[in-house]
Structures are given as C-alpha cells and as structure tokens.
Design goal:
Strand order of the largest sheet of chain A: 9-8-5-4-3-1-10
Distance between the termini of chain B: 11 Å
Oligomer: heterodimer
Number of strands of chain A: 17
Radius of gyration of chain A: 22 Å
Number of helices of chain A: 15
Distance between the termini of chain A: 10 Å
Shape of chain B: globular
Helix content of chain B: 10-25%
Strand content of chain A: 15-25%
Structural class of chain A: alpha/beta
Largest sheet of chain B: 2 strands, antiparallel
Shape of chain A: globular
Strand content of chain B: 15-25%
Largest sheet of chain A: 7 strands, mixed
Number of strands of chain B: 4
Largest interface: A-B, 17 and 16 residues
Radius of gyration of chain B: 11 Å
C-alpha cells in the first residue's frame, strides 16, 4: 500500500520528504470490490467514461487531475456587464483574466511544456478572454495541433453560445467532448439587464432584441451538442436582484435540453476591476445566498459545487494555479512531448482511485444506514488524491463537506490566506482564517501545531490531525459515528 | 476616408481584424492598425463599419478625421 502512495505523491511536485515516508492508510483490500474500480453512483457509464479524468466535470476527478487554459481566442462578440476586457492583473484569480494572449503555435509549446512537467494534466481548455466559438480559426488551429501531439488530452471549450451552432459539427469532428456555455437568462427582459450589446450577422444589436437572439442561439447550440453526445456544462453568474431567482427557471430549461452539469457562480464585482457592475455598485451574492440558491436547485440539472472561478490561463489542480511557472518566456522555443510522467501517473491513479471510491461509498453508506438526524460541517485541508494530506498552515483553501442522514456531500470550498508562511504564523491571519471557518464543526488536516490548534479550540472549532493521510470520507464517517453514536466502520489499517 | 484605432485604448482582441471585409486591419509591432488605402468604410459590403461595430471598447475605433 505504501508503495502506491509514494508513487502518487512523488509524481506531484508539492511534496515534502516526510510525506513520502508517511505510510498510506487505505480502504484497500479489506473492501469487497478490491481490484474492480467502481464509479460514483449518480453517473451513468457512458458519461463516466467521458468525465472520469475531467476535473471540472467530475468532483471525484478533481482530486486527481489538472486542467490548463490557453488564451488563444481573445475576440468576443458580446459585451457582458460583469466583464472588463481592459483589466489584467497577475495576482488576480477570476474568469477572463490572463497575463498573455497566445498564438496557436505558442499555445502548443506551452501545452507540451506543462504536459512534460505536470503529470496530473488531463484537460486543455480555451476559456477566454473572448469567445472560443467566435474567434474560431484560432480555437480550431490550437485544438488540432495539440490533439496531434498529445492525442489523449481532453479538449474543452467555453463559449457564450452566440456563435456556437455553426461550429458544433466541427467540434464533434475534433473530438471536443466538453463544452461550457454561459447562460444567465432565458427571459430576454432579464438578458437586457446583463448584456448591453451583441454582434451577430455583421451587425450590433442592443436591448431586448440582442438578448432574444442570444437566448435563441444558446438554446439551439445546447440542443445540437446534446444530439451529438457532447457533454455540456452550463455556467450561470448569480447576480442578486437581476437573475438570482430566475436561475431556477434557467436550471429547468437547460436540464430539459440535456445539459450535463449546472455551475452557478457568484458575480465578482470589485469596483477595482472596472466592470460595469463593479462601477455601478451591483453587489455579488453573499456565500450564504449562493449556498441557499444551490440548495434550491438540487434535484434539477446536476450542480457543480467545486468550481474555483479560475483565471483563463490557469494551470494545475483546481485548488491551485501554477500559471506563473509557465509563462511564455519560461517555455523553450523548441520542445518535444515526453509522455512518461503522465503515463506513469495515470497508472498509479487508476489503481488508487478505485480504492478511494470504494472507501468513499462504504463511508457514505455507513452514515446513511445510521439514520441519525444529526449533521456535521467538516472543513478539510487537502492537496489531492481524496485524502487529508495538507498541513493546516499551508492550506490555501479548505474543502467543506456536510455529513447528514443524506450521506456525505461536498458543499463548497473556502479560500484562506496561508497561515504559515516561511515557518511562522501570524496572529491576524489566524483571525481571518477563523472568520472563513465560521459555522464549521470540525477541521481535518495532516498536521497542525499546538498553538493554532488551541486558538481554534478557544473559538469553538475542533481541529485534529488524527486522520492525517486518511481518505476524507472515511475520516468523516468515523467522526460522525463518534458524534452520533452510530456503528463505525471496521477499522482499516 | 478610413477608420482608425486609438492604440492606447485597444485591448488587442483582434475581432476587428477578422470582421474587416477589405483586409485593411493588421497587427503591426505593438498594435492593430487600419491601412487607410485599403479601408473602404465597408461601403458596398455592410451597412455599418464592421470594425467599429464589433469593437468592445467605446470610442476606440473611430473615423480617421476625428
């Protein structure tokens, strides 16, 4: 077992020596289905084959696989009130923001450089700034060149849908099997409040007419993708007072038309970003409002809850961004693809993840069987693999899980400043971390110092590293059993 | 007569380049530039100038005499 863990961890970069020496804990062969990798219960087999390595489409895959975005298609045919195309800051993390735009040739070099260095890489996306379907020649050239060099990489594009329908057949031919459409409305009256104009059929349209055309084109594009078996994720920006209630209707419409996943994201409207909404004081939703809306949408189109609203040139696992390591000036002019790291990593993951899914399903089953009415909100420090394997002081975010009679559910992630930078923790940072962790019952991490642990306890938050390197769900089910007197799972070594 | 791009405001998205029916827009050095000899203001091709219609930044793609 420890050999597996060593292989998985040693292939990823952010690994310390003590971790390599830590024996892995696992559900392992104690479980009945050892050797037969299972899949999550809520996805059919055909879809699972498509999403199992896609971090954005599968919450399970996001523990293992990484995406990268290349900004090759900067031209756009729509103006949105939440977008400002002049603003760019390297320290910022939000959709549409990039440090450099690339030609298809430059993009190819960058993809190869990342594929050689980041073994988790499984998906290449074109996600802005601009629209991948409108700036089509560059999108197509990039996809074709990358697919030729790295045939197993999954291609993925993001679009506003206006120019989608005319490229659906080419997308299918190019084996693009994941498309994200941003759909914020199905009612043009509401659309007119979000989109000042669109450019379609060689002219600019404004107001309700613009929104009506956009709506029609989005629905047509979605239906065409569904017909061809291309998985479609719908992104919706939640804008309080504009479309928040309306997104319930949007969710119904896209579900009826075959959307695979619905991702409701909070509006980002900092005045410093210079967007129309930022400048006019339109506020974004509070975390609790977003959570409430997502809960109301349960039962409709399947919801995505692990989105990080990453930059349009992000590189790495969803919780991290290594984009700054792969700017064009750091990529060699001549570069050859070396498949070895990615291949080895995939082999290791194939073994590891079957084990994880089994352990996870066992843990969730145990909690459901317990039939208790209690619930626990648990924050986890992790850097992948579905394990509690990040130090409290090194965590840039905590993943939040809810354990209740319904099972164990990933709820959201909460970003924090790293408490421990260079070996020492700062008082004020800890206070901010505590604020972020409001409402959490228990915090799980690989390691935590006595001092911050004590302070967390004083603030009413239990923190423990007793489950370090365990699977997340296994640890939560054990805690749940202790808390509510359910029968715990047999001990796993 | 032609249109011109105010370089300091241009986001270099390039939308104007591929909408131009006359091939008058090119990326030169650091900026997109409209060749006044090739620009027809879209006369005979479209009702409105394509570059100005698609440009996302207000008052950035404008008649040259302004």
């Amino acid at each position: 077992m420890s050999a597996r863990m060593t292989a998985l961890e040693s292939l990823t970069r952010t690994t310390s020596l003590d971790q390599l020496q830590t024996p892995a804990k696992s559900g392992g062969c104690a479980s009945s289905s050892c050797g037969s990798p299972s899949q999550p219960n809520d996805v059919n087999s055909a879809a699972w084959e498509k999403i199992k390595d896609h971090p954005c489409y599968s919450e399970e895959a996001h523990h293992y696989f990484a995406r990268m975005h290349v900004a090759v298609a900067p031209a756009c045919n729509i103006q949105c009130h939440y977008c400002n195309r002049k603003f760019d800051c390297a320290n910022e993390s939000r959709p549409g923001v990039v440090s450099e735009k690339l030609t298809p040739d430059q993009a190819l070099r960058k993809v190869i450089a990342v594929a050689n260095e980041v073994p988790q890489l499984s998906v290449l996306g074109i996600a802005g700034p601009g629209d991948a379907c409108y700036d089509w020649r560059k999108t197509k050239a990039t996809c074709e060149r990358v697919a030729k060099e790295i045939p197993d990489i999954k291609l993925c594009i993001s679009t506003n849908g206006l120019a989608l329908a005319e490229h659906v057949d080419e997308l299918a031919e190019m084996n693009v099997d994941h498309v994200t459409i941003t759909i914020n409305m199905i009612d043009p009256e509401i659309g007119a409040k979000i989109y000042p104009w669109i450019f379609h059929d060689h002219r600019r349209y404004t107001g309700i007419e613009a929104a009506r055309i956009l709506h029609k084109r989005q629905m047509l594009g979605l239906e065409m993708l569904t017909e061809r078996g291309i998985l479609t994720k719908i992104n919706s920006v939640m804008i309080p007072g504009v479309n928040d209630e309306h997104l319930i209707e949007v969710n119904k419409w896209v579900k009826e038309r075959g959307a695979f996943l619905h991702n409701v994201m909070p509006l980002i409207s900092d005045p410093a970003h210079g967007t129309h909404y930022g400048l006019t004081g339109q506020r974004g939703p509070r975390a609790i409002e977003l959570k409430a809306l997502r809960n109301r949408l349960e039962g409709g189109a399947k919801l995505m809850r692990h989105c990080r609203q990453c930059r349009a040139d992000a590189v790495g696992l969803l919780g991290e961004d290594r984009g700054q390591e792969f700017t064009l000036d750091q990529v060699p002019g001549e570069i050859t693809y070396d498949a070895s790291k990615r291949e080895t990593y995939r082999d290791v993951v194939a073994r590891e993840r079957g084990d994880y899914i089994t352990a996870k399903n066992d843990a969730i089953g145990m909690i459901k069987d317990a039939g208790s009415g209690g619930s626990l909100l648990v924050a986890v420090a992790t850097k992948g693999g579905g394990r509690i394997n990040e130090h409290f002081g090194h965590a840039k975010e905590f993943q939040v899980y809810e354990a209740s009679a319904m099972g164990i559910k990933f709820v959201e992630h909460r970003k924090v400043e790293q408490y421990c930078l260079g070996g020492w923790g700062e008082e004020t940072t800890l206070e901010r971390v505590l604020a972020v962790l409001e409402g959490i019952d228990i915090l799980l991490c690989a390691k935590i110092g006595d001092c911050p642990k004590h302070q967390l306890t004083e603030a009413g938050l239990r923190a423990t590293d007793a489950f370090g390197y365990d699977y997340i769900e296994t640890a939560i089910s054990t805690l749940y059993a202790a808390e509510f007197g359910a029968e715990p799972l047999p001990t796993r070594a | 007569m032609s249109f011109r791009i105010i370089a300091s405001q241009c986001t270099q998205c390039g939308a104007c380049e591929f909408e131009c029916p006359s091939g008058a827009i090119k990326f030169k050095g650091e900026a997109y530039v409209i060749d006044p000899d090739k620009c027809t203001e879209c006369k005979g091709a479209f009702e409105l100038q394509q570059c100005a219609s698609v440009c996302p930044v207000p008052e950035t793609c404008v008649p040259a005499e302004l």
